[in-house]
Design a protein that fits this description.
single chain; 246 residues; mainly alpha; 12 helices
């Protein structure tokens, strides 16, 4: 792992390179020597990863490599220029691969809000990448309901295939159902089914509808307060007779 001083130097150089690129109107700051060195390092790391067959082992190596780029990414984000930077895009993808949802969402916000592209080796936009992968991370207990909601809001205005977005609504429905937020779960399952008839939510939706029906039945029927018993008229008359006798 780079030393603190080395990380600080990389952050400063990355911020300077980003600002220089913004001033010159050039993407990726290709004329910057620090950027060229970083790109060469990334190429070497990608080559090393290409020799690993095991996905688990590959992601373990990615987690180790990511630390080499943290300072660069921090510098680019702090500069806030919104200039295309393929290293930031690649780290966004790698953070998702290793299950670091918090950092992936941070980079996803930066890429999407600045309308930036993924590196050339990717066919999807950053919005599509988030919608495609965050539901899987939720299923693996690496993402939370709040992360799914954040992705839904962040990508709401971005075009993508219906079956891709349906997958996000399905995950949201399942997450809400786990918390017994049945109305929210039903709404998400309905949205998923509307987008993709084969998204696989019909059994879950039927179960949620049954629970909602049971709750409504209890509220309108079995939940009524029983009426009070009728007064004992004979007892009251007897007490009145005794009072009259007295």
């Amino acid at each position: 792992m780079p030393s603190f001083a080395e990380q600080h130097r990389k952050r400063v150089l990355a911020a300077q390179a980003a600002k220089q690129a913004e001033a010159s109107g050039e993407d990726n700051a290709d004329n910057s020597s620090p950027m060229q060195l970083m790109q060469a390092q990334l190429a070497g790391h990608k080559q090393a990863l290409s020799k690993i067959s095991s996905l688990k082992a590959k992601n373990k190596r990615k987690a180790e490599f990511i630390a080499e780029y943290d300072a660069h990414v921090d510098g680019v984000l702090s500069a806030g220029t919104g200039i295309q930077d393929d290293i930031v895009g690649m780290m966004f993808a790698w953070q998702l691969d290793v299950g670091n949802v918090e950092q992936a969402l941070l980079l996803g916000h930066y890429l999407i809000e600045n309308n930036l592209d993924m590196p050339p080796s990717f066919n999807d936009t950053p919005a599509k990448v988030l919608v495609r992968y965050i539901p899987d991370l939720w299923k693996n207990k690496q993402a939370a309901l709040s992360d799914l909601i954040e992705v839904l809001k962040l990508t709401a205005e971005h075009d993508m295939h219906d079956d891709t977005r349906a997958k996000l609504h399905r995950a949201l429905g399942e997450a809400y159902a786990e918390q017994d937020a049945l109305e929210d779960a039903k709404a998400q399952f309905d949205l998923a089914l509307d987008l993709d008839a084969n998204v696989g939510v019909k059994p879950q939706l039927a179960q949620v509808n049954k629970k909602l029906g049971d709750l409504n039945a209890n509220a309108t029927g079995d939940g009524l307060t029983p009426s009070a018993p009728a007064p004992d008229n004979d007892g009251a008359a007897s007490q009145g007779s005794q009072q009259d006798d007295d």
